[in-house]
Structure formats: structure tokens, C-alpha cells
Amino acid sequence: MELGAFSVSLTVKDINESKAFYEKLGFQAFGGDPEQQWLIMKNGSCVIGLFQGMFEKNILTFNPGWNQEAENIDSFTDVRDLQQQLKGKGIKILSEADEAGEGPESFTIEDPDGNPILIDQHR
Q: Which residues of the chain fall short of a pLDDT of 70?
């Protein structure tokens, strides 16, 4: 099962303070807008998202259809197909993708320890 590009979405208290901290670790801004309280940062192939006031917990995030550079890849498994595969394996879907649609969509699951996992397709 190919889930797409991986990143960790971190809930932060102060977007600018967190940005400065991760810059000291070698991360550079890659996308987003700190004025909108979110920023994507990169260090090599490691990608983190900083989100102020948007989530309660840190989230493992996968993006079908993207590589680690947030570039479209030709062949990928649609988020709706991934959702169906996981349902078939007995995984509980917390927020479901609309399986009748196409294009951008997402769904959320949790691991056995309650860690949220977002499967988020942007195209």
C-alpha cells in the first residue's frame, strides 16, 4: 500500500517561535503562510508542518499523489481506494472521504495508541 508523501503535522503554540526553533535545526520554509498560522518546513527529505490553533494533537500525514517535494507523481492510489482497502482490513475510519467524488479529499484514522493519521489528497 503506497500512502504518498509523509510529513508530521505539529500543533504549535506560537508559529513564529516554532519556525525560529526549527530553522536552528536546519529546516527551511517550504510552503504555507505564518500569517494564516501554518507553515511547511523541510530539512532534506524530512517535512514537518507547523499549525497554530488548528489541531488538538500532532498528526502523521500522508499525501497520495505527491512526492516529498510536494510535486505530482504520475501513478498513485486514490484516497478513496486507500480508504476502501483499510476498511477491508478492519481499520475504523474516523472521518470518511466521499467515495462518490473525485479529486481532492481526505480521511482520518487512529493507530492503537490514539495517534491521528490523516490521508490527505490534494489533487
A: none
